[in-house]
Design a protein that fits this description.
Elements lengths: L1 E6 L2 H4 L3 H13 L15 H10 L7 E5 L5 H8 L3 E6 L2 H10 L4 E4 L12 E7 L10 H10 E12 L3 H7 L10 E2 L3 E2 L3 E7 L2 H10 L2 E9 L1 H12 L8 H13 L2 H4 L2 E8 L1
Parallel strand pairs: 2-3, 2-5, 3-4, 5-6
Antiparallel strand pairs: 1-9, 6-11, 7-8, 10-11
Helix pairs in contact: 9-10
Length: 270
């Protein structure tokens, strides 16, 4: 497991962790002025991996969308006949979702300490959320184990410590971290942002917390290639046509273990 950090201002550097995470994600979503495209979920890699397991659940089964962000997953799965609750740490985002999707169920809360009763859910999914707490994934997984019924599903994705990043991290810090200077150190305050995990590290975390892992799959090759180009090949300006073309070609020819941005685990509560 490896840590990533973010440059922050002085005010953010002193915030308690939950307040910092809430502020960060509120800022990420606040400029969005229209609802996301709910129908696009059907084409997502994550849905392709989880759908076969959801088909075995009866209509009305309870599902938690942990770290629901802009809410499109919550709404989409509710349209499939499930009883879905979206939970997010950003109170401002939850308030906005209530106006965008008034018939959907959204709640403000911390994934590490929810107020749901034991064994509340038949399935729980969370995309790119558990990794944002410096204490590790354990607190989120302990709570997931409590609120998912025995035999229920957990689908979780986290950033992938792929081979490109393994090789990058082996180099001297000043060669790949633009915030760091070998003589003067870091130019701005830094704060923990996320963990990156290998496939076996994610599997181990899940198994330690009462989940039997059926598989861990790399996802997000296109995003991963884009990040490789953005950080390693500055000539490919993000958003440009050469950048888009190079991203597509790279996603076709490069192995998932080298460039995929995330890994997704499918697990069952023991």
């Amino acid at each position: 497991m490896r840590k990533d950090y973010l440059p922050v201002d002085a005010a953010a550097s002193s915030l308690e962790e939950a307040a910092f995470v809430e502020r960060f994600w509120t800022e990420q979503w606040q400029n969005r002025d229209s609802p996301p495209d709910v129908s696009a979920i059907a084409r997502r890699e994550e849905y392709r991996l989880m759908a076969p397991h959801l088909r075995g659940l009866p209509s009305g089964s309870r599902i938690l969308d942990g770290g629901c962000g802009l809410g499109e997953w919550t709404v989409f799965l509710a349209q499939q006949g499930f009883d879905v609750t979206g939970l997010d740490i950003s109170e401002a985002t939850i308030a906005r979702l209530a106006t965008w999707f008034p018939t959907a169920s959204f709640r403000h809360g911390d994934l590490r300490r929810t107020d749901f009763p034991d064994a509340s859910f038949d399935a729980y999914f969370s995309w790119g959320t558990f990794e944002h707490f410096e204490n590790g994934l354990g607190d989120c997984l302990t709570e997931a184990s409590r609120i998912v019924r025995r035999g229920g599903w957990l689908f979780v994705s986290v950033p992938f410590q792929n081979w490109r990043l393994v090789l990058r991290d082996a180099r001297a810090l000043e060669h790949w971290d633009e915030e760091f200077d070998a003589q003067s150190g870091y130019r701005t305050p830094q704060r923990f942002y996320q963990w990156r995990l290998t496939r076996e590290e994610l599997r181990r975390e899940l198994e330690l917390h009462g989940f039997s892992v059926l598989g861990v799959t790399p996802v997000g090759k296109l995003t991963g290639v884009g990040r490789m180009l953005q950080w390693g090949f500055p000539l490919f300006a993000k958003g440009s046509r050469p950048y888009a073309m190079a991203s597509r070609v790279g996603a076709l020819v490069l192995p998932a273990s080298y460039v995929s941005h995330m890994i997704l685990a499918v697990a069952k509560r023991r």
